[in-house]
Amino acid sequence: MIREIVSDAEGRMKKSIESLTEQFKKIRTGRATPAILDAVQVSYYGSMVPVQQVANITVEDARTLMINPWEKKMVPEIEKAIMKSDLGLNPATSGDVIRVPMPALTEETRKGYIRQARLEAENARVAIRNIRRDANGDFKDLLKEKEITEDENRRGEDQIQKITDKYVGEVDALLAQKETDLMEI
Question: Which residue segment(s) compose the domain that 13 sits in?
Fold first, then answer.
Protein backbone atom coordinates (compact mmCIF):
# COMPACT_ATOMS: atom_id res chain seq x y z
CA MET A 1 0.00 0.00 0.00
CA ILE A 2 2.75 2.44 0.97
CA ARG A 3 4.67 1.65 -2.20
CA GLU A 4 1.54 2.36 -4.28
CA ILE A 5 0.99 5.74 -2.61
CA VAL A 6 4.67 6.66 -3.06
CA SER A 7 4.79 5.63 -6.73
CA ASP A 8 1.49 7.43 -7.46
CA ALA A 9 2.83 10.60 -5.80
CA GLU A 10 6.10 10.36 -7.72
CA GLY A 11 4.25 9.90 -11.02
CA ARG A 12 2.13 12.98 -10.32
CA MET A 13 5.22 15.00 -9.39
CA LYS A 14 6.88 13.96 -12.68
CA LYS A 15 3.82 15.29 -14.51
CA SER A 16 4.22 18.61 -12.67
CA ILE A 17 7.80 18.83 -13.93
CA GLU A 18 6.68 18.00 -17.50
CA SER A 19 3.99 20.68 -17.26
CA LEU A 20 6.55 23.23 -16.04
CA THR A 21 8.86 22.34 -18.93
CA GLU A 22 5.98 22.94 -21.36
CA GLN A 23 5.20 26.30 -19.73
CA PHE A 24 8.87 27.31 -19.96
CA LYS A 25 8.87 26.51 -23.69
CA LYS A 26 6.21 29.17 -24.15
CA ILE A 27 8.35 31.83 -22.45
CA ARG A 28 10.38 33.29 -25.24
CA THR A 29 14.12 33.80 -25.02
CA GLY A 30 16.03 35.84 -27.59
CA ARG A 31 16.81 32.69 -29.58
CA ALA A 32 14.59 31.15 -32.22
CA THR A 33 13.10 27.80 -31.23
CA PRO A 34 10.14 25.99 -32.85
CA ALA A 35 8.73 25.19 -29.38
CA ILE A 36 7.66 28.84 -29.10
CA LEU A 37 4.86 28.12 -31.58
CA ASP A 38 3.57 25.03 -29.71
CA ALA A 39 0.60 26.94 -28.30
CA VAL A 40 -0.36 28.60 -31.61
CA GLN A 41 -3.52 27.06 -33.08
CA VAL A 42 -4.56 27.55 -36.70
CA SER A 43 -7.90 26.94 -38.40
CA TYR A 44 -7.60 23.94 -40.75
CA TYR A 45 -10.74 22.78 -42.56
CA GLY A 46 -12.95 24.04 -39.76
CA SER A 47 -11.01 22.72 -36.77
CA MET A 48 -8.25 24.27 -34.70
CA VAL A 49 -4.91 22.43 -34.89
CA PRO A 50 -1.35 23.28 -33.78
CA VAL A 51 0.81 24.96 -36.43
CA GLN A 52 3.17 21.94 -36.40
CA GLN A 53 0.39 19.81 -37.89
CA VAL A 54 0.02 21.98 -41.01
CA ALA A 55 3.57 23.17 -41.60
CA ASN A 56 7.24 22.38 -41.20
CA ILE A 57 8.92 24.72 -38.68
CA THR A 58 12.70 25.10 -38.83
CA VAL A 59 15.28 27.43 -37.33
CA GLU A 60 16.74 29.47 -40.18
CA ASP A 61 19.30 31.28 -38.01
CA ALA A 62 19.71 32.15 -34.33
CA ARG A 63 16.91 34.74 -34.44
CA THR A 64 14.60 33.55 -37.22
CA LEU A 65 12.08 30.73 -37.58
CA MET A 66 11.05 29.55 -41.03
CA ILE A 67 7.60 28.06 -41.52
CA ASN A 68 6.88 26.03 -44.65
CA PRO A 69 3.13 25.29 -44.84
CA TRP A 70 2.23 22.04 -46.56
CA GLU A 71 -0.63 23.74 -48.40
CA LYS A 72 -0.26 27.17 -49.99
CA LYS A 73 -3.70 28.29 -48.79
CA MET A 74 -2.53 27.90 -45.16
CA VAL A 75 0.01 30.76 -45.44
CA PRO A 76 -2.42 33.59 -44.50
CA GLU A 77 -4.10 31.40 -41.83
CA ILE A 78 -0.78 30.65 -40.10
CA GLU A 79 0.30 34.28 -40.38
CA LYS A 80 -2.98 35.42 -38.77
CA ALA A 81 -2.69 32.84 -35.96
CA ILE A 82 0.85 33.97 -35.09
CA MET A 83 -0.21 37.64 -35.11
CA LYS A 84 -3.19 36.87 -32.83
CA SER A 85 -1.09 34.85 -30.36
CA ASP A 86 0.21 36.89 -27.44
CA LEU A 87 3.83 36.03 -28.26
CA GLY A 88 4.66 39.46 -29.68
CA LEU A 89 5.91 38.03 -32.98
CA ASN A 90 5.50 39.63 -36.42
CA PRO A 91 5.67 37.08 -39.24
CA ALA A 92 6.86 38.13 -42.71
CA THR A 93 5.62 36.22 -45.75
CA SER A 94 7.59 35.81 -48.94
CA GLY A 95 5.80 33.59 -51.43
CA ASP A 96 4.76 30.44 -49.62
CA VAL A 97 7.34 30.69 -46.83
CA ILE A 98 6.72 32.53 -43.55
CA ARG A 99 9.69 33.92 -41.66
CA VAL A 100 9.27 34.82 -38.00
CA PRO A 101 12.07 37.05 -36.69
CA MET A 102 12.57 36.94 -32.94
CA PRO A 103 12.67 40.51 -31.64
CA ALA A 104 15.61 41.26 -29.37
CA LEU A 105 14.58 41.27 -25.74
CA THR A 106 14.75 44.58 -23.92
CA GLU A 107 15.77 44.69 -20.26
CA GLU A 108 12.12 45.28 -19.35
CA THR A 109 10.79 42.31 -21.34
CA ARG A 110 13.53 40.08 -19.92
CA LYS A 111 12.47 41.02 -16.38
CA GLY A 112 8.83 40.38 -17.29
CA TYR A 113 9.67 36.94 -18.69
CA ILE A 114 11.76 36.12 -15.62
CA ARG A 115 8.81 37.11 -13.40
CA GLN A 116 6.58 34.86 -15.49
CA ALA A 117 9.10 31.98 -15.23
CA ARG A 118 9.34 32.41 -11.46
CA LEU A 119 5.54 32.38 -11.19
CA GLU A 120 5.34 29.15 -13.22
CA ALA A 121 8.07 27.60 -11.07
CA GLU A 122 6.24 28.57 -7.89
CA ASN A 123 3.02 27.04 -9.26
CA ALA A 124 4.93 23.80 -9.92
CA ARG A 125 6.38 23.83 -6.37
CA VAL A 126 2.88 24.34 -4.93
CA ALA A 127 1.54 21.46 -7.05
CA ILE A 128 4.35 19.18 -5.82
CA ARG A 129 3.70 20.16 -2.19
CA ASN A 130 -0.02 19.50 -2.65
CA ILE A 131 0.82 16.01 -3.93
CA ARG A 132 2.97 15.50 -0.80
CA ARG A 133 0.07 16.66 1.40
CA ASP A 134 -2.32 14.24 -0.36
CA ALA A 135 0.09 11.30 0.06
CA ASN A 136 0.65 12.11 3.73
CA GLY A 137 -3.13 12.33 4.15
CA ASP A 138 -3.45 8.85 2.63
CA PHE A 139 -0.86 7.56 5.13
CA LYS A 140 -2.80 9.14 8.03
CA ASP A 141 -6.02 7.50 6.81
CA LEU A 142 -4.33 4.08 6.67
CA LEU A 143 -2.91 4.66 10.16
CA LYS A 144 -6.36 5.58 11.53
CA GLU A 145 -7.82 2.40 10.07
CA LYS A 146 -4.91 0.46 11.61
CA GLU A 147 -3.81 -0.85 8.20
CA ILE A 148 -0.24 0.39 8.77
CA THR A 149 1.86 0.95 11.90
CA GLU A 150 3.23 4.31 13.06
CA ASP A 151 6.72 3.28 11.93
CA GLU A 152 5.43 2.47 8.45
CA ASN A 153 3.59 5.80 8.43
CA ARG A 154 6.79 7.66 9.37
CA ARG A 155 8.83 5.74 6.76
CA GLY A 156 6.24 6.55 4.09
CA GLU A 157 6.23 10.24 5.02
CA ASP A 158 10.05 10.28 4.91
CA GLN A 159 10.02 8.70 1.43
CA ILE A 160 7.47 11.24 0.23
CA GLN A 161 9.56 14.10 1.68
CA LYS A 162 12.70 12.84 -0.10
CA ILE A 163 10.82 12.63 -3.41
CA THR A 164 9.30 16.08 -2.81
CA ASP A 165 12.76 17.56 -2.15
CA LYS A 166 14.09 15.91 -5.33
CA TYR A 167 11.34 17.35 -7.54
CA VAL A 168 11.42 20.81 -5.93
CA GLY A 169 15.17 20.74 -6.64
CA GLU A 170 14.40 19.92 -10.30
CA VAL A 171 12.01 22.89 -10.45
CA ASP A 172 14.75 25.14 -9.04
CA ALA A 173 17.28 23.82 -11.57
CA LEU A 174 14.86 24.34 -14.48
CA LEU A 175 14.13 27.88 -13.28
CA ALA A 176 17.84 28.70 -12.96
CA GLN A 177 18.43 27.42 -16.52
CA LYS A 178 15.52 29.47 -17.87
CA GLU A 179 16.73 32.61 -16.09
CA THR A 180 20.21 32.07 -17.56
CA ASP A 181 18.68 31.70 -21.05
CA LEU A 182 16.62 34.86 -20.59
CA MET A 183 19.54 36.97 -19.39
CA GLU A 184 21.76 35.87 -22.29
CA ILE A 185 22.13 38.61 -24.88
Answer: 2-25+106-183
Q: What is the CATH number of the domain that holds 80?
A: 3.30.1360.40
Both 112 and 173 in one domain: the answer is: yes
Per-residue CA distances from 184 to 59, 88, 101, 119, 179 (Å): 18, 19, 17, 20, 9
Distance CA 36, CA 28 (A): 6
Q: pLDDT tens across 107-122, in order?
A: 888 888 899 999 999 9
Q: For the chain, what's the residue count?
A: 185
Q: How far apart, in whole angstroms, are the C-alpha atoms of residue 34 and residue 26? A: 10
Residues 39 and 19 in one domain: no
Q: Report helix, strand or coil for 130.
A: helix
For 22-33, how does the pLDDT look when each residue is reduced to its tens digit (9 = 90+)?
888 877 776 777
Closest of 136, 126, 140 to residue 162, by C-alpha:
136
Q: Are residues 19 and 110 in the same domain?
A: yes
Can you give the C-alpha Rg of the chain in angstroms?
22
On whether both 19 and 76 belong to a single domain, the answer is no
Give the chain's domain count: 2
One domain, residues 90 and 45: yes
pTM: 0.73
Confidence of residue 17 (pLDDT cuts 50, 70, 90): very high
